[in-house]
Structure formats: C-alpha cells, structure tokens
Amino acid sequence: MTFLSNISAVLFLVALILLILCIISFFKKNGKAMIYGRPGVICLLISLLGVATSNTKTDHPVFEFFANLCLILFCFFLILAILSIIKKTGMAKKQFLITGGLFIAFAVLVSIASPNTEKTTTNDKKVASEKVDKQDTEKEEELEKKEADEKARKLEEEQQTKKEKEEQKQQVEAQAQKQQEEQQRQAEAQAQKKQEEEKRQAEAQAQKQQEEQQRQAAEQAQKQQEEQQRQAVERASQKKSSVASSATSNYGGSNGQPFQNNPSDDKETNTSCQGQVKGNANSKKYHVPGGQYYDSTKDNIVWFCSEADAKAAGYVKSKR
C-alpha cells in the first residue's frame, strides 16, 4: 500500500504539471492544450484510483478496485461527453451511454464490495469481545511476567552476591599469588644478576690475563725478532768487512784466499793457483773453468783457488 501511495503521489504531481501547461497553452492558443490535457487527465485519474484503492479497507479488494476504476472512467467519459456537447462533435450520445454503463457497473461493484451492516455489527462485537479477552489475557500475562521478573530479579541478586563473593575470593588468591610470583621473580632476577656479574668479572679477568699474556708474548717475540735482526745485521756487517778485508789484503791471490780482480791485469798475472775459480761480487755466484759464463764474466771478479773457498765465502755455483 505504501508503494501504491507513492506512485499515486508521483502521478498526481505529473498530472498537476500537465494541467498547468494545458491551461497556459489554452490561453496562448498555440494548439497544444489537448497534447497536455489528455495525459494530464489520465495521470490524475490513475492517481485518484491509486489513492482510493490504498486507503479503502474491504473484504473484496478486487471488486473495490474495479468499482473505483469504473468511477474514474465515469468521470472521464462524463467530461468528454460535456466537451462533445460544447464542441458539437456528434459523439455526445455514445459517450453518455458509456458513462451510464460505467455508473451502473460502479453501483453494482460498490454494493458487492461494501460489507453487510449486520455482519459488520457482529464482527464489531466479536472484535470487541476478543479485544476484552485479549486485554484480560494481557493483564494476566503481565502479572505472570511481573512475578517471573521478580523471581528472576531475586535469583539474579543471589547469583550476583555469590558471584561477588567468588570474585573477592579470587582477587585475594590472585593478589597472594601475584605477590608470591613477584617475590620469586625478584629473587630469581637478583640471583641471575649476581651470576651475570660474577661471570662478567670472571670473563673480564680472563680477558685481561689473556691480553697481558698476548702483550708479553708480543713483546717477547718483538724482542727476539729485533735481536735476530740485530745479530743478522752484525753477521752481515762482519761478513762484509771480512770479505772486503780479505779481498784487499789478498790482492794478487795467495794461500787459497779470494782476491779482487784488477781490470788492468790480465788473467795470467792474477792467477796464483792451479784451476782458479772466478766469482762475481754482485751476483754472489762463482764460475769454474770451462763454464758458459766463465770467460764472459769480466767485472767485479773475485778469484778463488777452489770451489770450497768460494762456498766458504758465501758464493753459490752458477748453473751454467
């Protein structure tokens, strides 16, 4: 019914707009009055039909609908008949006949759809009696509901009291347990902190000892390395001094000692022993007679009477 009422309201607004346009066109005499008038009247009649149908309560809604439809069509054709008389179109008689038929149909349908008065009175009494019985029943139900609500309220209060006592007991137990757990946690935390502190001190002491040992070992190794380097430098210096002094003192060669070659001397004048070995002071290699580089080695020559003398002086034999 709400949907039908909304549709009727929309159609009524549309009909109102079309009728306004029809009136304006009628005064302007532009020939559009009928164009706006016919759909406006149709929309108006349909909206009235919808309103009548949605607001009427009956036991026969179908007959009521057609009765309203006949009434609206009756009004429509009555208007057309009057307009036909005014304009003298010759359709007035036919339209009046249709109007009369619609009026008769409307009367019949209304008589069918309208409820009987006696039946209505009986129904009203029955409805009133049912209403009184319903009120009595509602009062009894309300009393029963109040009693049930009172019992439920008392039961709920008892349960609430019991629940509060249990909650208080649980809170006390929870508080005691919480205090115990807090004390245990603090004790464990204190013990763990003490253990970690002892462990940290032990690790720090061990690390300190290890660093001290490493430092001492590094100092000892550095001292040994410096001592070895110093001794090596001294040995190298002594060896260099020995070789230089030997080469200087034995210039010309004698007693199997090496001597430095004088570039102005030839081989024969520097040869003081049989099978003389030629050494190079730069490469620290010696060459025996018949070797590949024996004759080609002419600079920085140191002569030895034997390979043993050359090896003793720190020279190595050339591979060629």
Chart the SSEs and their pairings.
Blueprint: H1 2-28, H2 33-55, H3 61-87, H4 92-113, H5 117-249, E1 259-260, H6 267-270, E2 277-280, E3 285-287, E4 301-304, H7 307-312, E5 316-317
Parallel strand pairs: 3-5
Antiparallel strand pairs: 1-4, 2-3, 2-4
**Helix and strand pattern:** HHHHHEHEEEHE
Low-confidence stretches: 246-271
3D shape: elongated
- Write down the Rg: 70 Å
Q: What do these coordinates show?
A:
With 320 residues, the protein is mostly helical. The protein has helices spanning 2-28, 33-55, 61-87, 92-113, 117-249, 267-270, 307-312, and strands at residues 259-260, 277-280, 285-287, 301-304, 316-317. A five-stranded mixed sheet has the order 1-4-2-3-5. Strand 2 and strand 3 (285-287) form a beta hairpin. The protein is elongated, with a radius of gyration of 70 Å.
Characteristic key phrases:
320 residues, transmembrane helix, mainly alpha, 5-stranded mixed beta sheet, Calcium-binding protein
Describe this structure in a few short sentences.
The protein has helices at residues 2-28, 33-55, 61-87, 92-113, 117-249, 267-270, 307-312; strands spanning 259-260, 277-280, 285-287, 301-304, 316-317. It is mainly alpha-helical and 320 residues long.
